[in-house]
Design a protein that fits this description.
Keywords: Amino-acid biosynthesis, CBS domain, Cysteine biosynthesis, Lyase, Pyridoxal phosphate, Transferase. With about 325 residues, this protein is α/β, with parallel strands linked by helices. It is built from nine helices and twelve strands. The protein binds 4'-deoxy-4'-aminopyridoxal-5'-phosphate.
């Protein structure tokens, strides 16, 4: 019989698929890695497993332990399912502006969600960072993984995401394109691919960061943007600036328009950071030839963004599209 011992064993091993429509006029092969096929629905399952397993090995998480992290997004889902399978409780700290639906997802996995007060400075003990520090210290057996600084996060990508891409492309990948939030993906995957290809006749893999316009990683000043999960307004420990060779700033409008094209033309319903990565990947691929292989990592599914990126009214209200007349009625032009 062919089955996994636990859902945790199904994390990783995601497939690559070629883009065929949005790549019109491009000679290079453009492949995308579908991280929404992880059991928790995002790339963050990978770091969740490694952070918890490393904490167990180091004796920081013991039977009866409690995982405490300030997150309401994909990392929370990954931690919730891995913690549950390994017999730990999980408590997530979030802020009121986070959609009720995201909290409900975490609670559905059996996790506890604490909502801190709104409008509190990051340094305050009442910020969601502050509350999570306090809970991790006060709850018996509490452990805070801290995805922004935990070396297990980039290591999980060095050990899994990077080797998977190298093997699946049979060592022919020429460019890796990824968004960076905590930086774990670019640091771990990029470092592995550059090392493994260092002596290759065609030269090492080039690592490209796709960054929201306004984020510090591509020279911005931390100006706000709508695309979620990527970009930062401060530099964070797990982002190694030595790994990327190029950075491309991408606007929200470009990212969201690409999400809609990926859904309608490629059958890929993916989130804003995936639209961002593909936009940058196509900009890179335009300059390349038929022997080049560009791989973009798509971190999560579009299901979590149906009320935003895939909602015409939300797009219009936020200035990302306009209603145009067509022969059959009206449609959103993005
Ligand atoms: N996209 C989404 C949707 C994410 O949640 C994250 C994680 N913050 C990323 C991209 C970026 O990944 P990383 O934190 O590894 O840089």
């Amino acid at each position: 019989m062919k089955y996994a011992q636990s859902v945790v064993d199904l994390i990783g091993g995601t497939p690559l698929v070629r883009l065929n429509s949005v790549t019109e006029g491009i000679e290079a092969t453009v492949l995308v890695k579908l991280e929404y096929l992880n059991p928790g629905g995002s790339i963050k399952d990978r770091i969740a497993r490694k952070m918890i397993e490393d904490a167990e090995a180091a004796g920081k998480l013991k039977p009866g332990g409690v995982v405490v992290e300030p997150t309401s997004g994909n990392t929370g889902v990954g931690l919730a399912l891995v913690a549950q399978q390994k017999g730990y409780r999980a408590v997530f700290v979030t802020v009121p502006k986070v959609a009720q639906e995201k909290r409900d997802v975490l609670r559905a996995y059996g996790a506890d969600v604490v909502v801190g007060p709104a409008g509190v400075a990051a340094e305050s003990p009442l910020s969601y960072y502050g509350i999570s520090d306090q809970l991790a210290a006060e709850i018996p057996g509490g452990y805070k993984p801290d995805q922004f600084s935990n070396p297990a996060a980039p290591e999980s990508h060095y050990e899994t995401t990077g080797p998977e891409i190298w093997e699946d492309t049979e060592g022919r990948i020429t460019h890796l394109v990824v968004g960076a939030g905590t930086g774990g993906t670019v640091t771990g995957t990029g470092r592995y691919l550059k090392e493994v290809s260092a002596d290759r006749a065609t030269g090492p893999v080039k690592v490209v960061v796709a960054d929201p316009d306004g984020s510090v990683y591509s020279g911005g000043e931390g100006r706000p943007y709508f695309v979620e999960g990527v970009g930062e307004d401060v530099w964070v420990p797990n982002y190694d600036p030595a790994v990327p060779d190029q950075k491309h700033a991408v606007t929200d409008a470009e990212s969201f328009a690409m999400c809609r094209r990926l859904a309608t033309e490629e059958g890929l319903l993916v989130g804003g950071s995936s639209g961002l990565a593909v936009t940058a990947a196509l900009k890179v691929a335009q300059e390349l030839g038929p022997d080049d292989v560009v791989v973009a990592v798509l971190p999560d599914s579009g299901r979590g963004y149906l009320a935003k990126i895939f909602n015409d009214q939300w797009m219009i209200d936020h200035g990302f599209g306009e209603v145009v007349s067509t022969s059959t009625g009206t449609e959103l032009s993005v």
